[in-house]
Please model this.
Amino acid sequence: MSERPPHHGPDGRYRIPWPLEVADERNAGGVLRWQRERMRQTLPPNPRPADLPLVPGDVARPRAEAGEVRITWIGHSSFLLQLGGANVLLDPHFGTRASPLRFLGPKRFVPPGLALDALPPIDAVLLSHDHYDHLDAWSVRQLHRRFGDAVRWIGPLGHAAWLRASGIRNVADVDWWDEVSIEGADGPLAITCAPAQHWTRRRLREYNDRLWGSFALRTAGGRRVYFGGDSGYFRGYTEIGERLGPFDAVLMPIGAYEPRWFMAPAHMNPEEAVRAYREMGSRGAFVPMHWGTFRLTDEDPLEPPVRLRQAWTDAALPPEDLHVLRHGETRIIS
Ligand code: ZN
Ligand code: ZN
Model:
């Protein structure tokens, strides 16, 4: 029998295999303390529509040219990634709320930057993990209804079973460092699951029953994109850069970080996202995500890109490599 990897716990659940830099307070007592602190303060207001404009995108139809990297921000961690002549959706969420309920839970500030029925043909969907702001059952059903088994669904271990239960058959479960490939117009597009520091749960009784992860995509022509999924800052970014980079574009989460004592193990802040980018080799376009769409935590929802720009300047990184997209906006990475 092969040895159990350190992120596979002996109880069959997954776990973060390295020591945390900020102790994990995400237990019942921690949740209570967070809610109590929340009630004692006035949280910054939700953004107004004018603060988060929805702009028309520039999606290539049906697909982008081989060699081109074209990124459209749908909102939160959802993107249409056009590369290697393939169309890939990342954590697609087109629903109204990031919640198991239709009438309760974080509601969208902005409609999806690209409507479901405006999508070009989709070749693959990557799921970073099962949280409701990333894996939306309604969106999954709509995508499956529209594109059927033409779509390859790829997620960390445990997601294939969830997808199969929804009637989807063209699925691949991947562990960290596993690689699968899909066929793009530019030849095979290699997709490698990489570590992240996070957790999973969809139902109360579940906890880390499914794995979480990030992804690197590499075209036969040598273009490379990294999708950071949902993650706290951890010491693994140097290795990800060495094994899977250098990247033409790095999509990193920058929001849902306050209060730090509670959120740090699971969500990085903008300064940490810049640190991770530098440890991956400071290469390629930085595209922020996981902000400006759902209110999940206590910081001002408009603060993440402000702090990101400051951290970018403080690190003396080239301004032309920072791409803060507006909802719906498309960027072609040369
Ligand atoms: Zn999450
Ligand atoms: Zn999230």
